[in-house]
Amino acid sequence: MMEGARYLFIDFEFTMPERNWKGFYPEIIEVGYILVEGGNIVDQFSSYVKPIKYPHLSKRCSSFLKISQQQVDTGITFKQMLDQFSKIPTVSSLKIVTWGNMDMKVLRNNCLHTELPFPFDGKEIDLSMEYKRFFGNQNQTGLWRAVQEYGKEGTGKHHKALDDALTTYQIFKLVEKDKRYLKKPKPATIGDVIDFSKLLKQHV
């Protein structure tokens, strides 16, 4: 991990439709993130978020994500979530890391529907694609499958936004460690092999 670099590891959970929901689009109902600076977690945040288009969760959504209607009803609004993001120091070196590209796609779409500005301008990193390229996998690997392939276990519960953000950070550190290990050392120059100062002394 680059010294002084700032990384935002973020994860969202989304609504799921019933069959007869017209005009449906996924809405964020849970957010979790950690802010990492110089390899240390300096801030973290987690909250449920109230959906707007379809405020009542489908049975499939509640069952799959283990999120209750009461939890989202007592959550923050989408605008309050964006206000929370605005508290994160936004510098040019901030990198937003997600597992997969859906998180940023849904956030952009939700901003579009609410006519609110997209909150980030830093570089976006899809760690699942980096993982796929690094290991030469044909298919994209799921988050918790990836960490298990390293012989580790994910943090907390899968499909819990903050836990998934922490697990993404865990994989990020493992991949970065492997990248450093596999880097080829620079070829030695003739100056590294021969001490010219000793040769010169011998000929004086």
Write the layout of secondary structure elements.
Blueprint lengths: L5 E9 L13 E10 L2 E9 L10 H7 L3 H5 L4 H9 L7 E5 L3 H13 L8 E4 H9 L7 H7 L11 H22 L7 H4 L2 H7 L2
Parallel strand pairs: 1-4, 4-5
Antiparallel strand pairs: 1-2, 2-3
Net shape: globular
Low-confidence stretches: none
Computed CA radius of gyration, to the nearest angstrom: 23 Å
User: What's the count of strands?
Assistant: 5
How many domain units? Answer: 1
The residue fraction in helices comes out at: 40-55%
Largest sheet: 5 strands, mixed
Give me the side-by-side strand order of the main sheet.
3-2-1-4-5
Tell me, what is the CATH class? Alpha Beta
CATH topology: Nucleotidyltransferase, domain 5
Content of β-strand: 15-25%
What's the CATH architecture? 2-Layer Sandwich
**Average pLDDT score:** 86
Note the gap between the termini.
48 Å
Number of helices: 9
CATH superfamily: Ribonuclease H-like superfamily/Ribonuclease H
Instruction: Report the structural category.
Output: alpha/beta
Series of H and E elements: EEEHHHEHEHHHHH
Protein name: Or 3'-5' exonuclease KapD
GO molecular function: 3'-5'-RNA exonuclease activity; nucleic acid binding
Pfam families: RNase_T (PF00929)
Domain Exonuclease: 6-181
Question: Could you characterize what this model shows?
Answer:
Keywords: Exonuclease, Hydrolase, Nuclease. This is Or 3'-5' exonuclease KapD. It comes from Cytobacillus kochii. InterPro entries: 3-5_Exoribonuclease, ERI-1_3'hExo-like, Ribonucl_H, RNaseH-like_sf, RNaseH_sf. This protein is an alpha/beta fold. The protein has a single domain, classed as 2-Layer Sandwich (Nucleotidyltransferase, domain 5), CATH 3.30.420. It is 41% helix and 18% strand. The protein is built from nine helices and five strands. It has a five-stranded mixed beta sheet with strand order 3-2-1-4-5. The chain starts with 5 loop residues before the first strand and ends with a helix.
